[in-house]
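Notes from the 1:1 (GR / supervisor)

We went over the backlog. Supervisor wanted to see one worked example end to end before approving the batch request, so GR pasted a single chain during the call. The sequence is below; no edits were made to it. Supervisor asked that the structure be written out right there so they could see what the output format looks like.
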Amino acid sequence: MIEITVDPKVLTALSAAFPTPPNAAQRALDKYVTTLRNLTMASLSRGQSTFEVKLNLLSLSLHDLANKGGQIGPKKVRVHAWLRDNNLALIQQVEVGSNLTGLVSQVKFTGLVTLDWHEPEAVNDSICVDGVDIDRALLKQNANRNAELFRTILYDYDDAVREGTVQMEFDTVDIDTVSLGNYIQWLRDESTQFSDEKRNHQFFQARIILAIAQHKNGKYPQRKQPSEFGRTYYRGTSVQNVHKQLRRAMLGHSWEYDIRSSVVAWKMGFAKDWVESYCPNLTVEHCFVNSLSYLEQKKTFLNHVRLRVFGKDCDHAEEFQLKLLKQAFTALSFGAQLAQASWQNRKGQWVTTAIAEILKIKEERERFIADADVRGFIAEQSELDDYLFDGVKAGYSKLLNCSCVQTASGQPSKAKVIAYLYQHGETKVMNVVRDAMAEFNKTVLGNIHDAIIIRERLTIDDRHEIEYRMREKTANPYWRLGTTELEPWAASQKEALKEEAAHRQRMKVFEVEAKKRLEILIEQSALRGL
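Structure output shown during the call:
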């Protein structure tokens, strides 16, 4: 739980300006600080960009802060405005937000504010640690912290319960709190694979999930946020936007089923129509050889590209090389361009291209761009993109008038149109999967766009049946499900070693004491014999 402590001189000045009624200044400042804390937690839950972390910035709505932060005095002066006008502002605006761009302001705390974090604590009736009973009042205090965090993050959940709209507004995830607690401990004491920025972000997300799950008896509600593009997202920290290792820790032992190469598989569902329209004397296998190789022989296809791009003497591990290539091909399937490493936007800012972000070494990136299989894959995907875009212009032109598929200048964006079509297609086929999971009585733990996580493993027959339904109901023969087993996060190895060492030490003490007792018994027996 984040706590914001404000320099006492702020309250002193506010009390002097608004002395009546008694405690009015304290109540007004408390309300403003609570609003600021809520917006801060929501911002950190969404995550900070590299730029924000480097400059210690947060993205939050100053409009919400000003309007929800309360008023004071007979003239109903906004506390936010009064603090600003009297050089007592708690935040400093660095980048101005805009309703036109949909961006919120970037701010930083002033020297009048101190931030502290209170760890989420387990909620039990009693607890005994090393033979010491913990005071019940302390347990109540810890439970109150978790409850306060729940009310802050999920302020409207109880209203939804009373109104009977919970299932419409929230998806609830079962959390393995033991596994998640182990992961938090690992992040804190042993993790070396993340940058400080990413580790701190995961820390914050994991703490939020654990505190709320402890308060809700292992349940973590996620507020739904439907998208115009067809997907269902969640506001704040959710099973969708956490790192895959944190997802594994929060869900415990489970099974993830995802659509293999989902974007390419979806586009290839239109390949037959493309061939009939443009090359009726040829076959899909002839016209889309690279895309089919990527779909049906992915490991072999990527290994051939890997050897040509990275070579035999590359310092990267083979697994890491393949990971980079998978990311690059996914970016290409979403329309990433093989342009220069960076480009300048309308504001004059330099933006790094998606491929350059993935393949950071210039020589490797150039070999990737020049590779014949890569070029062939791009050409085939481009043909399908053009075919789909032309189809929208001819038969669904109303879509082009929607702002969600337009550029900032108001022109239809082919990439956004393709993304719109894909995400609706993805939702349709995943609904087939979700319906089948319900029919087979599987416990769904998480929905992640093109993947679903369940507690129980599917039988081979059940998986084949679901794939058959996916293909039949969408007329797309290229859908296939991949399977990944997720294991709970084990207790810290460091703690296990520490406990083992402590156990050995206890055994040594026990052996010494036992030896002394034995010597005393032998001596006593000898004396009695005399």
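Supervisor's comment: Residues 121-139 have pLDDT under 50 and may be disordered.
Batch request approved.
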